[in-house]
Automatic annotation (TrEMBL):
Gene3D superfamilies in alphabetical order: 3.40.50.2300
Name of protein: Tryptophan ABC transporter substrate-binding protein
SUPFAM superfamilies in the record: Periplasmic binding protein-like I
Organism, scientific name: Enterococcus xiangfangensis
A Pfam family per the record: ABC_sub_bind
Top-level taxon of origin: Bacteria
């Protein structure tokens, strides 16, 4: 009888000890989980590869980092590139949602649109979109209203055309080449056409339906006009050398819309720093991650300024004298 009592006490004690031990283990585990918050995922979708979009993507990563979000440490970046293919963009948008992205970033209009078609509740940050309202991405730049906000790079078209007028005072006709499938280009061309007419140019427009058209359309445009004007067009940017090869043969200057295209053989632009556009985009994605911003009431960041850039080598090649005023104000580069 006595033994049974002792055994009973030992068992009871053991049960209590095991209970206490298990409880402590449990609380230790929850402490550990509280110290280390779950790593959040940033899903980035880029439309196509070309120097400008590649720089924007690097800028996005740098912008996130500036705000304390480092890939591989406290965030995971899932990056996909649609290589200019609409069906890829759609399936990649689904993949980024399946990876449970906490915030999505769409670089260039077709990528941002594919993401917006795939989800109406996950936050989406637009990376350098030319015209978010016409593209149907936001209702209103000041009050987006839905799950999309971000950076609108409004190319300084008026300043570009003014600069072109100073560079080519005797030119009469300007040829504008753009992709018929890119809304971002169409909206820029509309603005450029209006301004060019105001300064006295006759405008001829040339639409391409894919990069396969670039060579023949450029030849034709060079024959029919005094100089070319190229908008921020992704298809042209991804095959820019093809265009420059033809314009060089015809000895016609190409006024462009981004700094990278000046380095690649364009004559000049008033352009925006593509990396910085990405940094601003990354910062906006960080604000969503930290809970500081909700796209519905976060105004779109409209970046509408740029810097004058001129390619001195190309000017010499084409016998164009750079006016003193431009030489003073512009960043002078050589071709690459
Ligand atoms: N703004 C373009 C769009 O909405 C994307 C873009 C950004 C771009 N920078 C560029 C295109 C430079 C061509 C060249 O799609």
């Amino acid at each position: 009888m006595k033994n049974k009592g002792i055994i009973g006490s030992i068992i009871a004690l053991a049960v209590v000890l095991i209970g206490v031990f298990a409880y402590q283990m449990g609380s230790r585990q929850t402490d550990a989980a509280a110290d280390k918050p779950a790593v959040k995922t940033v899903g980035i979708l880029q439309f196509i590869s070309h120097p400008s979009l590649d720089q924007i993507k690097d800028g996005v990563i740098a912008g996130l980092k500036k705000e304390g979000y480092v890939d591989g440490k406290n965030i995971k970046v899932e990056f996909l590139n649609g290589q200019g293919d609409q069906s890829k963009l759609n399936s990649m948008s689904q993949q980024l949602l399946e990876k449970k992205s906490d915030v999505l970033v769409g670089i260039a209009t077709p990528a941002a649109k594919a993401l917006a078609n795939a989800t109406s509740d996950k936050p989406i940050i637009m990376g350098a979109i030319s015209d978010p309202v016409s593209a149907g991405l936001v209702k209103n730049l000041k009050k987006p209203g839905g799950n999309v906000t971000g950076v609108n790079n409004l190319t300084p078209v008026d300043q570009q055309i003014d600069m072109a007028k100073e560079l080519f005072p005797n030119a009469k006709t300007v040829g504008m080449i753009y992709s018929s499938s890119e809304e971002n280009s169409k909206s820029q061309i509309e603005r450029a056409e209006k301004k060019a007419a105001e300064v006295g140019y006759t405008v001829k427009k040339y639409a391409i339906s894919s990069s396969n058209d670039i060579a023949t359309i450029t030849q034709q445009a060079c024959k029919e006009t005094d100089f070319l004007y190229i908008p921020q067009d992704n298809t042209i940017a991804s095959a820019f050398q093809t265009l420059i090869n033809e314009s060089d043969k015809a000895k016609k200057p190409v006024f462009v819309s981004v700094d990278n295209m000046v380095k690649e053989g364009g004559i000049a632009t008033v352009g925006q720093n593509q990396f910085e556009l990405g940094v601003e985009t990354g910062k906006m994605a960080a604000a969503v991650l930290s809970g500081k911003s909700d796209p519905a009431d976060t105004p779109v960041n409209v970046i509408d300024y740029g810097d004058m850039i001129i390619n001195e080598e190309k000017a010499e090649e084409l016998n164009i004298t750079i006016p003193a005023k431009i030489k003073e104000e512009a960043e002078v580069v050589k071709g690459e």
